[in-house]
Structures are given as C-alpha cells and as structure tokens.
Design goal:
Layout: H1 2-17, E1 21-26, H2 32-42, E2 47-51, H3 68-76, H4 81-94, H5 110-115, H6 134-140, E3 147-151, H7 152-161, E4 171-175, H8 180-187, E5 190-193, H9 194-200, H10 204-225, E6 234-237, H11 246-262, H12 269-281, E7 288-295, E8 299-306, H13 309-318, E9 323-328, H14 338-343, E10 350-354, E11 363-367, H15 375-393, E12 397-401, H16 404-420, E13 424-427, H17 434-443, E14 448-453, H18 454-457, E15 469-472, H19 481-498, E16 502-505, H20 508-512, H21 514-520, E17 526-530
Parallel strand pairs: 1-9, 1-10, 2-3, 2-4, 4-9, 11-16, 11-17, 12-14, 12-15, 13-14, 15-16
Antiparallel strand pairs: 5-8, 6-7, 7-8
Helix pairs in contact: 1-2, 7-8, 9-10, 10-11, 11-12, 15-16
Amino acid sequence: MANASSKYSEKILLALQNKEKIIFENAPNIDIEECSTDAANQFSENTIIALSSPLAPSIKEKTQYLSPARFEKFLEKELTNEETIFAIKIITGLEKSKLGEKSDFALFRGENTLWTSVCCDEFECNHDKKSECFYLKALKNLEESKAITISHLTLLKEIKTGSMSLPKAKNLILGNFENIYETAEFALSEIYYSSDLENLAFNETLKIKLEMLFGMLWLMIEKATDQTNQNAYLSVELSEAYKGSKEWNQISAIALFAKEILDKEKPTELVKKLQILMSVLLSENSNYKTKIERSENEKVKIVLIPLNAKEIVKKNIFEKYESIILISSNLSVNKSLAYIKEKNNIQGFKEDFILSDEKPETAFYFIEDFKNLNRESLHRSTAELAKYLIKRTGGKTLCVFLSKISLKATFNDTYADLKKHEIEIYAQDVSGGRGKVIDSYISNSDHSALFILEHFFNFIDLNEIEFDQILFSKFYFGNNDEETILRIKRIFNKLLAKGVKRVFIADPQALKAIDEISASMTCPVEMKSIKVGQIGN
C-alpha cells in the first residue's frame, strides 16, 4: 500500500502544479485522505481537501464546537437531574479540552440531544472576534495550514452562508464527489425544527404564532396521510393540492401575521431565516421545494430545498477553482467514466486511473442455488444459508437486508436455533436501535451475528466492527442499470477497503449481473458463482 499511496500522492501533486482539472478513480485500498494531504503539504499554495467523512478534518462543523455563550445561558435555567449531570460533564471536560469539541466530552445517548442546546449555531452563539468562541479558535489554527481538510458539508455550508471563513485557496481536491449534488440539497436547505424555533423566539407573540403554525402543519400532515398515530414518522412534499384546504388557509393567515412581526425586527440571522419560511408559506418565494416531516421526537420539521442547488454547486465548486481534482473509487461502469460525468455535468476534465499493486484478499461468492426460486422459497433458503454461515464460524458475521420485513423474518427463523449453539443475534430494530445493536455486537462479536439494513450499512464505519464474513440477502435494482452497478460497486469497495475475507450474495439478480459488476471494479477482484454445497471447500 505504501508504494501505491506514494505514487498516488505524486500524481495529485503533479496535477496541482500543472493547475489541472482532472478525475482520478482510485483503487479502494488507497487512502484518499492520506495521499491528498501528503500532496497538498508538498504544494506551494493553499489547497482545500473536501471529503465526505474525513477522519482527521482540519476543522469540523460549527455544531461540533461548544458555545460558551449558549452554555452560560443553559446554566441559568432550572436544570433537571439529567441536565445537571450533562452540565457537570461539560464543565469537567473543559478542564482538558483545548477546542471545546463535542468528542472531548464523551457524551452518551440522551446527552447528544442536550448538546444541541449548547453547541455553536448561527443564532445565539457570539462569533465576535473578541469572544471565547471555540469555532473561531479552530479557524485561527488554520491560518498557517497549506492543506485544509474539511467535510463536504463544511464546504457547502461555507458556500451557503457566504461567510468565507476558511483560508482562501485556489485549489480543491474533492474526494468521494459522485453524490455531491445530493449532499448539496441537504447542506443548502433551510431546516426548521418546531421545538427549536419555539425556544429561540425572541417575541412572546411570535412564539405563540409559531406554536400555532407548527400545530396546524401537524394537523395538515395527519389529514393528508390519513395517519393519526402520533409515534409514526410522516412526510409530505408540499404542492398546490394542499393549498386549498381549511388548514392551509389558517397556516397562511398565521404566516402573514408572523411576517408582519418579523418585518419590524432587527434583521438578525434568525429573523432572516424565519422571513424566508414565511415568504415560502405565503407563496411569495418559489425558489424552494418544501418538505414537511413529522415525528414524535422532532415534532414537525420543515425543509426548504433550493431548486438551484446544482447551479450553486457548479458555480462555486466546479467552475471556481484554478485546479480541481476529483477523486473516488466509485466512478466507472465497464471502465468508462461517461455515466458519472454526464450525471454530474462535468466537462473539460482529464481522466486517469490509480491502481494498486496489492491484490485484494476479499472473495465475492454469488449463490447459484437461488436463481430460480420464488420469493417465499428464496427467503427460506436465505435464512438457512445465514444459519449455516454463522454456525460455521460461531460468530463474527454480518447479514445485510434490503427491507425490515426480510430482516425480521430471517431473525425469527434463525434466532432459536443459533441460541441453542450459544450464538447471539443482534438485529436492528428488533434487539434494539442502531446504536444499541452495534454496541452489543462489538462487545460479543466472537459469538454473535449482526443483522442490519443496507441503508444503515452504507453509513457505518466498518473499522469499528470486527467480522470475517458478510451475507447480502438482496440489493436494490432500479431502472437505471449504471446507477445500480455503481451502488453495488460502492458497497463492494467498502468491503475491499476493510479487507473482509468472504462476501456472500444471495440475490439472483446480482448473479445475473456478475460479469458487469466484475468488469466495473477498479482492480481485479475474485468474484465467482458457487453452490451452497461448495462453501468451505
């Protein structure tokens, strides 16, 4: 890996020196962050390195830093027992913490919710240079850095606020960029939580109006979805169909009243944010797509998604920098970058592939026996295969499912038998929530299996989990063949980077696509179809 990494750094450095716009597809066992940082530190100019989830960011999101002003305000109120313990943890943690980062305080479960009341934000945190703001201290530490590593989210938030707080740079290395537009939709959105806004309201009349507004939105969602279970998650995209209802007329009247209050206030960040919301609800602003979500914990959430997110990304990322280097291991389909370039509207970029000299140890096995089975038989056979694989190793097994139904059904079919063999199953949303099942598995991985959903698998850090084998029951196959291949390739690359020994695929559709999947991998991978009876031979 060292040789491949060195070669990769040299290519990045050369591209920076030549002010190139280039796309690299790298082998999955090459560390993008390490190599990009090495190249940027050797270059004479400032370079921003933006990655989806950097392991060692130069600066984190604002919300990851404690706000002394907000914490002081938090301490002024009458605290519950839980809040008192949380406050003591923050106070004692500050004795050792240099930058007031959330990770310095070892928060546990419910304390993460309390953190949102004391972290740096756009509204209450004092960002004056004379203040003790930890975020400003973190920014100051960047002044001497040539390589500035940040997350996609930090980069996009910087673009959204226009604050330009990061050191100026003419060069950008953008890693894992293939989903940058989807990330941009989230990062550039205006998000409103009912509970937060009620607490932040600076005017008692405004606070009452906001409570009424979100209450009417709650009622509108219930009627629109015919769902009255208050624990159920609900989501609707606002359209003209909702705007003729009695609830909507009341919402509009409340929004108009709130707008009149806001127009008389000093234009703070919070006032401007609320003015955008009222302008959208009053149909005065057509620059956003509106989603309204409801859940027990968040009550009501409004998300205003900018319709011009792609244009913002194109202007402020792809067209802004003198040198821009796009890097990922999840780009090509059948050795071609045509699809990813068309999807992201990337033009005028050179292309190159960075291959590793190391042969991956991971083997991918597609099960032949299941290709002609109906749905019920496929489920039973997958459950039997899961039992067989877990028993063979006694544990250290992950099983990934596309749906909650298949996960729970497989759990029910395997739990009792594996329990007899003193093997535990920790299943997402069956044995507990995501955090709980991960913690339970980690503490007992040698004698247990972890059942999780594919969506969750895509976000977890595999370096925190020890396992020798993994079983996929099914992949999602959409109408777009290239997108499907890239989705599977992304999963496989994650396993290659981890160095997992054995990967079993029980999906008959994936078996049919084995040649195309194999041809799309950046480096040669052992990938073959086998029968269940051949496992272990």
